[in-house]
Amino acid sequence: MPRFTRQSLIWSLGALICIYVCAQTWLSVQWLFTSIRDSVPPSSTYSPENHIRYEREYTTLIASAGLIVGLYVALAFSRQWLKRTSLTNASANASSLATDDLPATKETSTAAPYDMSPQPQPLSLPAWFIWLRQIWCYEYRPFATTIQAGQGVILLTFVGIHIGLIVGIPLASSSQDDPFFHHQLVSNRVAQMALVDLSVAVGLSVRTSIVWRWLGLSDLRSTITWHWWFAMAGYVGVLYHACFQWTKHYYRHYLEKQSLILVASATDLGNPLDGAMFASMTWWRLVISNHHYFTGFLMSICMAALWVSAHPIVRTYAYSVFRAVHVGAFVGLALVSFWHHWVLAYFYISVLGLWLVDVITRCRDPLVEVIGLDIVAPQLVQLQIFEPVHKNTGRPCRPSGFYPGQFAYFGFSRHRLFDLVWSQPFSISRVVKLSPGHNDDTMPGLSGQPSVISLYIKVSGKRTQQLYDMVSKNSKDAWPSVRLGTPLGQPLAMWDRFESFPVIVLVAEGIGITPWLSVVQAMSQQQQPTCVYVIWTVRDSSSVRAMVQDTDLQHAQWRVHITSDYASIPSRSPDQLDAIDYHHGRPLYTKLLNDIRLKHPKVNVLLGLCAHDDTIATCGNLARSSKFSHPHAFWKVKTERFEFL
Ligand SMILES: Cc1cc2nc3c(=O)[nH]c(=O)nc-3n(C[C@H](O)[C@H](O)[C@H](O)COP(=O)(O)OP(=O)(O)OC[C@H]3O[C@@H](n4cnc5c(N)ncnc54)[C@H](O)[C@@H]3O)c2cc1C
């Protein structure tokens, strides 16, 4: 018997809506196609003298591109200003930081492999900002999705700007006289708007770029969301333009051309538009009759492929297919678009300036040898690699080191091209600097202090299963080397950094502990006192032991909730796992967070969340509420999701 879940209900409804939209679109196109015969004027009215020409104009393109650049500059400057102000405030307030309820400053610190700022920077935010954040960032969970209240406002503004730029600018005189030209102008303006949207979307799809780092968008999480918004706006624009061209303009233009030829040759054939001319017109002849039509048709196919491949269903069930089709369709689009219209050069600024630079940078990602690949728990693999170093100097490729909580893309095939398309993101869980005297045969010429990077990979799909199977066969020779991408997720502002907060609360569910392991490690090596709480929910305790065995547990208060096999909770033993406070069943987050709040009523707290969306929404909303965040204590929420969209 079929079992109905909320998920399956949503999918069925979604499919029904799609079918309805397709049917409706098809009927509309049919209707428009037949109605075009009536809208085409008879040939007798055409003459080279009375033929009105459409006046080209690019106001929407110039205005929208100008607006985007202006917005970018304004955001970049305000961010720099905020950064400077926060630093000035921080140094002024540093002495007044309430540290009564914090552990004493550590006497010594070990050599840390992490890139941390030396001083904690307290935040002092105005009450209105805290209040606005509570409303703006409030997360709702309708139909198993997450929507923030502020997103609605952003969406409305986004749509409003688009409509304003298309219909708000006065029309050219010829377009005012002729309704057809009026439609054509609107259609072209929509296309110009779509061009700008798609160019921005391409720029936002890159993994890392100085252009986005200036805005504080330091990893894919923030840029991919905007990539989606701009791409959707672009799709709608392209769809509108294509529908207009297909249903109105192509036929009219084609017939107009034929009429002019007939009039010019002074052949008296009566009114050929009604009969022979329509009969001779086939779909293919129409498409190839003009290079704009042909390239437009190819571009529509590429756009459709981009849209379909990026659909959540495809991404969930065949992520590799999504990557391959998305990249292929994008390259196809870039190749044909220049022949469509010269104005698409705008698109190339984004493609060449950001996307190609990103691809070239990623092509140079170093290949590092794997030094450890072990099954540490059922369905869980630990991967250890050396930090990449320069071949000639032996110095680390990234001298600034790593920042806790960062993730990187890992390519497991040995082929550069494959890794470019099919690399996968994993959080860096631990970075351990080896002793200065360390010498390893696998790293000849190593002169610096190398670090070993560890990460945990849980089987969750085809390729992680392949990796797991390979490790379980213990085929040591076949162990892959790994291509390590640039670590992403480095916070740029002081108010985003862990070391700026005297209290850190880390909430994790399942494999979501991986980014927080490095935070616990980094905080234990900090000179400044930091209170770290970890609330971790797992199904069984086997992965707990496996993942924390190399972590210094004494510097954080660990609370682990086992949801299934209570019997598997290890009996109290003198080993360091004794530091973990085990519980059975799911945690009551509201109560736990409230207890922590009462313990630290007047300090700023960073709440790290890497869990299921329901947990993220519950804990995040609580931390942003006026009970937790107010001018005397600010709870900053840092969310890590293992999916970008
Ligand atoms: C920032 C970030 C950090 C992560 N850290 C860890 C970690 O520390 N440990 C861990 O076990 N997992 C982590 N993941 C999840 C991990 O990337 C996926 O589980 C893994 O790539 C699945 O690979 P697969 O080929 O087996 O699955 P597939 O069958 O290919 O896909 C399964 C699901 O994994 C996701 N996925 C697959 N490939 C990618 C990709 N290239 N980019 C984004 N999502 C993808 C998709 O949502 C897909 O639905 C992280 C994900 C992100 C986005």
Task: Describe the model.
This protein has helices at residues 6-39, 59-93, 127-136, 149-167, 173-177, 179-204, 210-213, 220-264, 276-280, 283-288, 291-309, 312-317, 319-340, 345-363, 416-422, 462-472, 514-524, 542-548, 589-599, 613-624; strands spanning 139-140, 147-148, 367-368, 370-377, 380-386, 407-411, 424-427, 430-433, 451-458, 482-484, 503-509, 531-538, 557-562, 580-584, 605-610, 635-639. It is of the alpha/beta class. It folds into four domains: 6-39; 59-96 and 172-361, no CATH class; 367-484, Elongation Factor Tu (Ef-tu), domain 3 (Beta Barrel), CATH 2.40.30; 501-639, Nucleotide-binding domain of ferredoxin-NADP reductase (FNR) module (Rossmann fold, 3-Layer(aba) Sandwich), CATH 3.40.50.80. The strands form four sheets. It has a six-stranded parallel β-sheet with strand order 14-13-12-11-15-16, sandwiched between helices. Strands 3-10-6-7 form a four-stranded antiparallel β-sheet, with helices on one face. Strands 4-5-9-8 form a four-stranded antiparallel β-sheet. It starts with 5 loop residues before the first helix and ends in a 6-residue tail after the last strand. Mean pLDDT is 79; it is low at 38-46, 93-111, 266-270 and 440-447. Bound molecules: flavin-adenine dinucleotide (FAD). Its main location: membrane. Pfam families: Ferric_reduct, NAD_binding_6. The chain crosses the membrane at residues 58-77, 153-173, 193-215, 227-247, 291-309, 321-339. One of its GO terms (molecular function) is oxidoreductase activity.
